[in-house]
Amino acid sequence: MSFPITRPRRLRLKENIRRLVRETRLTTDDLIYPLFVTHGREMRTPVEAMPGVYNLSPDLIIEEVARVAELNIPGIIIFGIPRVKDESASEAYDDEGIVQQVVRLIKKEFPELIVITDVCLCEYTSHGHCGIVEQERILNDPTLELLARTALSHARAGADMVAPSDMMDGRVAAIRRALDEAGYQDVAIMSYAAKYASAYYGPFREAVNSAPRFGDRRSYQMDPANAREAMREIALDIEEGADIIMIKPALAYLDIVRRVRDTFNCPVAVYNVSGEYAMVKAAAMRGWIDERRVVLETLTGMKRAGADMIITYHALDVARWLREG
């Protein structure tokens, strides 16, 4: 049947009708909030390219996490900024490293909050790459041991979930094995399974000072032109023991999210990354867009594509907006 018998506008005429037929719902339950932590006290250093985002010392992180808990956001993901960077990323797997200290603090104060830790080496290495380097070549297999040690140290500190973001081959299996052998079978793995070598990461690299000192990350992060490769990466990570898989970035890769949702029966996360956040903030500060409407529309699109959860720097604002209705 067609017009005039069929009139789709009938189901758009009133707000309550639109609510009844709404197919995709964004809720606070979908949100994970990223936090950057650094050594010191009363340290609140703004990230210039990410308005509203700060590098925080542990005492101020607790205040920020209190806001997360009050808004009923279910989880956070923590990124650490060490005192000293070296070639072996030693603070990444130090039990007294900044992430490990903060995880213990947060779990003591907010035991029900899900604490996820980023497992990578780029924030901790003097060269800025995600693995061990030899003659400007990033070595895959020697890196796995350090990634596993890092994940295990996070688990000992109390992390509920570890999130390897390095894109080394075999790292999920190495981490799962290390956790299980140490008795941490209940610590979950959220794998950055399809992490692209993206231009959208620029503001993040400013935040943690992790830009590579030579070359780039295209020898281990994925080519933005590839989709079938993403499916292979995800299948391998699930086989190796990933509990949740992630696509990063989100906005330019919603086709990948849709393919993954249609193919794999596992929870899917997306990372609404720093560059995506910065573009919205910059346009909103100039009055070119309605920030609230654009953010909610964008995150709803990620849900519609198939994401079960969204890591986003907008999380606090979104939770407030959703509470307001």
UniProtKB/TrEMBL annotation:
| UniProt pathway annotation | Porphyrin-containing compound metabolism; protoporphyrin-IX biosynthesis; coproporphyrinogen-III from 5-aminolevulinate: step 1/4
Can you tell me which residues bind 5-aminolevulinate 2? 274, 313
Annotated SUPFAM superfamilies: Aldolase
Summarize where Zn(2+) binds, as residue positions.
Answer: 120, 122, 130
Q: Provide the leader sequence positions.
A: none
Where is Mg(2+) annotated to bind? 233
The residues the record assigns to binding 5-aminolevulinate 1 are: 205, 217
GO MF terms held by the record? porphobilinogen synthase activity; zinc ion binding
- Catalysed reactions listed for this entry: 2 5-aminolevulinate = porphobilinogen + 2 H2O + H(+)
Q: What is its EC number?
A: 4.2.1.24
Keywords tagged on the record: Heme biosynthesis, Lyase, Magnesium, Metal-binding, Porphyrin biosynthesis, Zinc
Needed co-factor(s): Zn(2+)
Oligomeric form and interacting partners: Homooctamer.
Quote the function comment for this protein. Catalyzes an early step in the biosynthesis of tetrapyrroles. Binds two molecules of 5-aminolevulinate per subunit, each at a distinct site, and catalyzes their condensation to form porphobilinogen.
Q: Which NCBIfam families match?
A: PRK09283.1
What's the family?
Belongs to the ALAD family.
Q: What is this protein called?
A: Delta-aminolevulinic acid dehydratase
State the species of origin: Desulfofundulus australicus DSM 11792
